[in-house]
Known about the structure:
The complex is a heterodimer.
Chain A: E1 4-6, H1 12-20, E2 26-29, E3 45-48, E4 55-59, E5 64-68, H2 73-80, E6 85-86, H3 98-103, H4 111-114, E7 121-127, E8 133-136, H5 142-148, E9 157-164, E10 166-167, E11 172-180, H6 183-193, E12 199-204, E13 216-223, H7 258-271, E14 275-281, H8 282-286, E15 304-312, H9 316-329, E16 336-341, E17 355-363, H10 368-381, E18 385-386, H11 396-402, H12 406-416, H13 425-429
Helix pairs in contact in A: 9-10
Chain B: H1 4-10, E1 21-25, H2 30-41, E2 46-50, H3 53-67, E3 71-75, H4 84-94, E4 99-104, H5 112-117, H6 119-147, E5 151-155, H7 168-188, E6 194-200, H8 221-233, E7 238-241, H9 245-254, H10 257-260
Parallel strand pairs in B: 1-2, 1-4, 2-3, 4-5, 5-6, 6-7
Amino acid sequence: MKCAVFRPEKRRGIAEILEHGEQPTYIARGLGRSYGDVAVNPGGGVITTTRLNRMLTFDEMAGVLECEAGVSLAEILEVFVPRGWFLPVTPGTKFVTIGGAIAHDVHGKNHHVDGSFGQHVDQFTLLTPTGSVLVCSPSENAHVFWATIGGAGLTGFILTARIRLLRISSAYIRVDYRQCPNFDAVLSSIRETDNRYKYSVAWVDCIAKGKSLGRSVLMSGDHVDAESLPASHGDALSVPSRLQPGVPFDFPGFALNPLSIGLFNKLFYARHRTREGQIIDYNTYFYPLDAIHHWNRIYGKKGFTQYQATFPLSGVEGMRALLEKVSASGRASFLAVLKRMGPSSPGMLSHPIDGWTLTLDIPISRDLEPFLNDCDEIVVRHGGRLYMAKDAFTRAEVFAAMYPRLKEFQAVKQQLDPNQKLSSRLARRCGIVDGAIEP
Amino acid sequence: MSAANSVALTTAATIAVGPGTVVVLGVTSAIARALAGEFARRGHDLIVCARDSEETNAIACDLELRHGVRVVAKTFDAEAFETHAAFVDECVRDGNSSLEGVVLGFGFMEEQPVMQKDFAIARRTIDVNVNATISLCELFAAHLEPMRRGFIAGISSVAGDRGRQSNYIYGASKAAMTTYLQGLRNRLHPHGVHVITLKPGFVDTKMTWGLPLPGPLVASPERAARDMHDAIMRGKNVAYIPWFWRYIMLIIRAIPEWQFKKMKM
């Protein structure tokens, strides 16, 4: 079943599409970097916001940027890094829109210090499905604010937002690498060192088994002050422009196998010996995959899904069980990502909770769904939850168990959207909104 | 849009240093907005104009913030011919004697079957694409001619190169625009004013959204704008955007009429 895709070029355009009402339901879509079905709506409309990408004001004193929802993080970096400002929070790709960053309450390598993206939003304007425009902030329409942050686009269309940027004096990050021979080693290394760094993330080799299960490289970093940057870097706020290689076609399905991935992971581990004080530009640190266009084609035509589970502090054993299960299954995945998360977000459906998050890339195969359903069971049993931006398979009863504030969210949605005009395949699959789930 | 603007107006006597001001008409079109960005990136101040003041203001703010140049937003209606003289005077005055060029980025297109049935829509196509072009270009030309510098860049279309059943009313308007610009170029050449005809092929804008077009032939507005800026700077007379449309249109124009009339294009 198809989606009708709209791409308005005027801010009024979204309201006009809704008024016209040619489709039964609609959902907003930004740059389409979510892995699952959160921004697709078979049998309904999808409104792409990429042409509504105007930057409107910048308060130089407070560092607050006001812009439309279709502005991408890449555009903000391009304009503001040379002027000494950085994103307060960034996910692993810069090719996402501000609207998407709010709708998923995205997190980054600094979650343990700075929380998620929504906590750096001063205000936004929301076009509700009934056609009114609400100004929302933590003090004004606060319940709508915290329903929309992490609300997967189901409360309305974000028109403009005010984001607090971060002052920087250089575009470089100082990174310390630590090799951790197994899962316990990486957990204790993170526990011991995280409070010393703004950024921290571990890449886990999930092919390694037995005693080496959870073998990792922990990468912890901080912004470098311009004064302590070696003179060889030239202008502290400009970064080397990189060649943009691309993957021109889908790799054949057999290109990724336990052997080739195991080899890649071994090389990765060997390359990142424990060493301190490496200075790398922000693109290399935050967005390694953005450098390769269409990197997803490495997974072949069938593609892959991401499985990101976040556990409370008490759920460490669940995380270990999940890693063991994936490692034993031979469902070859490249490196997994492990991170300690900070305090939970106030967003009703925001995914970050105080604890640990583990992210796995898993190629799509015919028998994947039952396998992931088993994984879901582990996650729920240990009080964890999945991240909507990544999810493609979870069922409604599991989702409800993961998100205890779902009813509270649904009550706000009912107020804003009594006719259930905003919906997506994910919203129906996870039981956030009623409706049949299309194949 | 900036406070600095009013200061600049009072110092009209000073000689402009650096790149001059460029007027972009129809800036709410995706191509014109991207082309305005190409000029702003290189330090040109801008006067951006379109009918929809809310959108024009948003675009002006965006250009100013991204590129750190002065951008003045103006409302203008291509079809309100009687307002053009005052509007052009205002642009020239705000350009502060540093007016460097004008981009004609406005245009109108409706689906061919609609225009066949509704003459008002067909006439509007001619009014916007032809009559407004003539009205505005003559007014700007009168200012640029004595200055003996500057450019007028008209965004025409490959659709004007040959009439096809699927798009011939719009095509006719663009053919008229192309011919008009050709004559204007001839007239202004001795006076040091350059006129360039830009002929984009398929560009990913609201005009082509949803059409079943072959992907590799469709350029992004940013790519089209880069190529247009490049052509303007090189002083080209006619530029196909991107370049390969020159060869596609060469082939399409070479088909004999007795054959062409039987084809579905």
